[in-house]
């Protein structure tokens, strides 16, 4: 049996609506087939790919658009383990090591969750920060809070 690798390199996008900065609304997408599976778009970094290249590719695959402006990048990587009971596991990894980006949708960008051959999300919504922490997957909330607090402290949100 193959030994478990440590953590899969991954990017995550905190997406602000095109109305930012006059209105601060965050995009949450609902993972297909996961009850209460609301989260930020995220995905693996392919071999030879930079985190920024992975960000644009993943956004195109998951929400149908890469028409975003990068506002800031979280300076650290955040690790998390896959849940022991249930949840999506990606053998041979025990978890993911994520690089977070704060991005804003460009004016006129169109979200299309069905643009990719295997859609990962079934719905999306824009929420306030308070709504975000009530709606997001519990597993993700700690990292989301850490990253959003950092972006607020630095004046990006």
Multimeric status of the protein: single chain
Q: How big a fraction of the residues is strand? A: 35-45%
| CA(first)-CA(last) distance | 46 Å
Q: Report the helical percentage.
A: 10-25%
Task: List the topology elements.
Layout: E1 5-16, E2 26-31, E3 38-39, E4 42-44, H1 51-63, E5 68-81, E6 93-105, E7 121-127, H2 129-135, H3 138-153
Parallel strand pairs: 1-6
Antiparallel strand pairs: 1-4, 2-3, 2-7, 5-6
Walkthrough of the structure:
This protein is of the alpha+beta class and about 160 residues long. It has one domain (about 5-155): Nucleoside Triphosphate Pyrophosphohydrolase (Alpha-Beta Complex). The protein is about 25% helix and about 35% strand. It has helices at about 50-65, 130-135, 140-155; strands at about 5-15, 25-30, 40, 40-45, 70-80, 95-105, 120-125. The strands form 2 sheets. The protein has a 4-stranded mixed β-sheet with strand order 4-1-6-5. A 3-stranded antiparallel β-sheet has the order 3-2-7. The chain starts with a strand and ends with a helix. About 25% of the residues are buried. The model has no long low-confidence stretch (mean pLDDT about 95).
